[in-house]
Amino acid sequence: MLKEMGRTSQAVLVILYVFTTVKAFEMEIIPANRIVKQIGETLRLTCNTTGCASPSFSWRTQMDNPLGGTVNNYRTYSTLTMNPVSIVNSHDYLCTVFCGEKEKKEKSVKVELYSFPRDPVIEISPSLVAAEPVTVICKIPDVYPSHYLEVLLKKEEHVLHEENFYEDDSTNAENKTVRYSFNPTAEDIGKEITCVAKLPIPNMDFEPKERVTSEKLTANFGPQNTVITASPGNWPMEGDTLNLTCVTESNPPAQTVWRKHLADESIQLLTTNNVLSIPDAHFTDSGLYICEVTNLVTNKTEKATVDIVIQGAPDITELSIEPSTTVQEGENVSIRCSAEGNPSPRIILRRKPDGADLGPYSEGRILLPSVTFLNGGDYECVAENKFGKSRSEITLNVEYGPKNTMISVIPATAVKEGETVIMKCTSSGNPAPVISWKKKKTTGEPEKIYTDATLTIQNIKSQDLGLYECEAYNQFGKEEKDVKLLVQERLEKLDQMIPLIIAFSSVTAVAVPAVAILIYVSRKAKINGSYSLVKALRLKV
């Protein structure tokens, strides 16, 4: 009884241990709680779980608005990616996780957006002349939410004008403009006009919340401070839409021309807009871009440059065989593979199917001097970088004359009359050789007797013996092999031989005793001094 109670206690302890070591089903959203993001950036929300082997995920906004992003589910977590994040993503996002049919957990996170990407731009027009009015224009690009925007126009430390946009109900990032006109004095020339733009959104942590631009109060000026901004950046991925924006300070506004440096050092004219847009960017769009701005009043020109590098998995642009994919044995062959990608792909050329690595080659090239039939086959080019790989194949066909010609004879080269002989000729070559058979006449001249790989001779006779020759040929040459066929004559039939055997046996049976008697009598006669056969026989009798 005590033993049974002990065993029960141990089992309970084991069960308790298992339950305490198994992790409970939990979930979290990363980042958690509240998210502040600038419009145009990338936002990724991750819903992570523990304690559930095969969870299922569901994303939605609390107002059931479109997600405005893409969802990717993995084993124990799910990601919602918004690239780029826009106004439509300003929601509370709810992630629901189901573990089995009964367990369910939910968490939400609030996404708050703003846009305050660049410093204000000041324009002062028209040309400054004492005692005539001048208009100061301050442009604040891509502001959201604009009802928090506050703008100050200052001359040195003196506030000229203050404006806010509290009643603005814009629902997207917009350019906001503040204008102020005044009559400058001669003493004002050279003083700085400053535009201070503030976006003090309560309880939202981002920097900067204030942007400042100053411009000296002068006559017509510019262009100056020309800059290029690239979206989504200077290193976009292949397939992205690339936007290059050229911003300059000029009074009056400058004219813009975009150009690009080509590989041959020439310059390509692209557009005259201040924004250069390249949809579905390709590797060939990489390069140095030039924004040239000109103020026609001041006859002043300024340039800004930006180096754009398109990233992405490689594409094989060439896989070729020179001089041709079909060559003759002995020719020099070059196999070339090239690919484009960034980072620059690693190129490997190798032959299939044995997988023998014939690279990598930095230039993606294999040289095969005096090619042989062994070099023929399929070749594979693989281009690879950290973003992926590309693969392509090509076949090298090497033509050559017959080689390794062999003859096999079944059952053997020496056979008996009446048997069947099969002679098979094999040979390699490209194109496949034609096989023909010849037999040497008694005169020594070969006579063509058959065209096929296998020569069959049934009920063979003695006249079939002799030298047989196999010839393998194609347009690149021929090769010959020969074999000598020996035919053994068959013995006479058994029923014809029996009488001869009996007669021979009878003669032998009589002759042997007679010879023995003659020898005996002869010896006796010699002893008696008589060589008379009759007497010798009488004495014997």
From TrEMBL:
Checking Pfam families in the record gives:
C2-set, I-set, Ig_3
Q: Does the keyword rRNA-binding apply?
A: no
Q: Which GO terms describe its biological process?
A: amine metabolic process; cell-cell adhesion mediated by integrin; cell-matrix adhesion; cellular response to amyloid-beta; heterophilic cell-cell adhesion via plasma membrane cell adhesion molecules; heterotypic cell-cell adhesion; inflammatory response; leukocyte tethering or rolling
TM stretches of this protein: 497-521
Q: Which residues form the Ig-like domain?
A: 40-112, 223-307, 314-397, 402-484
Quick one: a GO cellular component term?
Answer: alpha9-beta1 integrin-vascular cell adhesion molecule-1 complex
Is Transmembrane helix among the key words of this record? Answer: yes
**Alphabetized GO MF terms:** cell adhesion mediator activity; integrin binding; primary methylamine oxidase activity
Membrane topology field: Single-pass type I membrane protein
Signal peptide (UniProt feature, chain positions): 1-24
Q: Which UniProt keywords apply?
A: Cell adhesion, Cell membrane, Disulfide bond, Glycoprotein, Immunoglobulin domain, Membrane, Repeat, Signal, Transmembrane, Transmembrane helix
Quote the subcellular location field of this record: Cell membrane
- What PANTHER family does the record point to? INTERCELLULAR ADHESION MOLECULE, VASCULAR CELL ADHESION PROTEIN 1
Protein's UniProt name: Vascular cell adhesion molecule 1
State the organism's lineage.
Eukaryota, Metazoa, Chordata, Craniata, Vertebrata
Name of the gene: VCAM1
